[in-house]
Design goal:
mainly alpha; 85 residues; 3 helices; 41% helix; single chain
Length: 85
């Protein structure tokens, strides 16, 4: 049974971030390593880069959140608007 309540208040649900913030111990060496693996495999997504690092190269100190964070920073944003505004 459904009740209709027209109280005027809107339902507020906080949005979750898609990618959690990486560990605070993300140093330059790990960043360079992630970018090196991504450059060697340019068609890989962030998850595939993570699996290459974790399973293929047996490095377990780099998390999936770190890989997503580093690769999201390097991605260029392309404007979809065609009129250069």
């Amino acid at each position: 049974m459904v009740y209709f309540d027209k109280s005027g208040r809107r339902i507020h649900r906080p949005l979750r971030r898609r990618t959690p913030q990486p560990d605070p111990n993300l140093d330059d060496a790990k960043t360079r390593y992630i970018l090196k693996v991504a450059a060697e495999n340019p068609r890989f997504t962030a998850d595939e880069v993570y699996h290459e690092i974790h399973d293929g190269r047996r490095r377990h100190d780099i998390t999936k959140a770190m890989v997503r964070y580093v690769l999201a920073k390097r991605r260029r944003t392309i404007s979809v608007w065609p009129f250069n505004r």
